[in-house]
Amino acid sequence: MTRLRKPMFARSIVILLAGLLLQSIPGVSLQAADRPNVVLFIADDVSWNDYGCYGNAAARTPNIDALAESGIRFDQAYLTASSCSPSRSSIITGRYPHNTGRAAELHQPISVHLPWFPQLLREHGYYTAISGKHHMKTTAPTDEHPQRPDPFDHVDGGKAPGDTSGSANWLSVTQERPKDKPFFFWFASYDAHRGWDADKQWDEELYGPMHRAEDVIVPPFLSDDPETRADLASYYNEVTRFDHRIGVVAEELRSQGVFDNTLILILADNGRPFPRAKTRLHDSGMKTALVASWPNGLKWSGQSDQLVSVIDIAPTALKLAGCVVPETVQGVSMQPLFESQSNSIRKYAFSEHNWHDYEAWGRSVRDGEYLFLVNERVDLPWQGPADSVRSPSHQQLRSLREQGELTEAQADVFLSPRPTVALYHTASDPQQLNNLVGNDRFADVEERLAGVLETWMDETGDSVPGKLYPDTFDRETGSRLKPEQIDIVGAFSPGRDRNADQINAPGPR
């Protein structure tokens, strides 16, 4: 027996060493159970406080609420842009919008040399899939920067006959995945983008009764009238459909026995598509719900007040997968936040607002208590994107304006000129209407945050172009302007003059 044990022991050592060697080779996968799966659910145009677990008693989100109850609900999570494609491009690269190249502005491509984190997961043995809204692309390859490998094994638009939600195929993608690999899913719905297709495709057996206009919660910067309430009810319906599909996937993961080893993150790309929300630097546009579920990995559950930026998602997924985080990533892993409620990963969260239908340039920094922002286009109102301007909710505000009946919160939708700088104490001023700039009591806070923002802009290569891309829609009606009304000659995106897409410095954090 002694003679037999030596060869068996030696063979075990060889197998162990071979396994360790395989772990170090890119693209070679260990067993799926060795590393956590990651599922990212991204809503389209949903504000942070339009979920039940964030205090909205009118919006039905039972599945998200349940995941928040057993996981972590982040109460200080912020986007880098309240604009669809810039926000998504920022998340997938782990970089600030102006550091992604032209993608800092709506519908524009990410610089081709920048890696997307799902690509790195795929190279490390993960099965990767995107189902639903994509809205991301790269610039054309060059000799210096050839086309990067495809980041996803599977790509589909998430639509089916009679279902344009973007979430129609999430269940089938989950069911049909390879069972011998860990997986990463980028599940991105079109809910709740205008124009409210859930109303026409509603299935009461699946989603329950449609929301009633009389039950919705009307934010103070909107008009409380039948038209606006109906608009919000249709929006709530889309939020509920998004929630339902999350529940379907979670149940499938449980049935497969992999739910406990799957990190689920739920967020949105920007605020609701209503006035003073989407495209805003204020909480109504830039703050996002962020719910984390991972029974095997979260050491505690409850509410977290620690600052999180969405650029922190990329390094989190990569580190959990055992990947090397590339130097292009400017975010920081959220893993310490999973370990203890008292841990923190950043002192500041930065956001920016660039062209989205309308000319704009704004920047902000948050420290968890205060929001400080600067605006380099003070003569232009921040009324929201064109689809919001065309909405019944915006047009009702126009009617109140003509009658001289706007409240202070409602009037802010049309305010021009706007302040160049603003400082808000977010806890005591949740709508951010009380500008503290010039108040001696807060002079030190203003000076500190102004300095932090200036340092961030300098270190990350941000800039204010002499000519920004102009309006392409009418600011009053939301109608598209004629080509001869749009002068783009000499216009360019922020950071382009400083080659910000080549700069990896994260700035203060």
UniProtKB/TrEMBL annotation:
- For this entry, the protein name equals Sulfatase
Q: Which residue numbers delimit the Sulfatase N-terminal domain?
A: 36-322
The chain's coiled-coil residues are none
The record's section on Gene3D superfamilies has: Alkaline Phosphatase, subunit A
Q: Where is the composition biased (Basic and acidic residues)?
A: 142-157
Q: Where is this region: Disordered?
A: 137-168
**Family, similarity comment:** Belongs to the sulfatase family.
Pfam families documented for this protein: Sulfatase
Q: Which UniProt keywords apply?
A: Calcium, Hydrolase, Metal-binding
Organism whose genome encodes this protein: Roseiconus lacunae
Record carries keyword DNA repair: no
Q: What is the lineage of its organism?
A: Bacteria, Pseudomonadati, Planctomycetota, Planctomycetia, Pirellulales
Q: Does the keyword Calcium apply?
A: yes
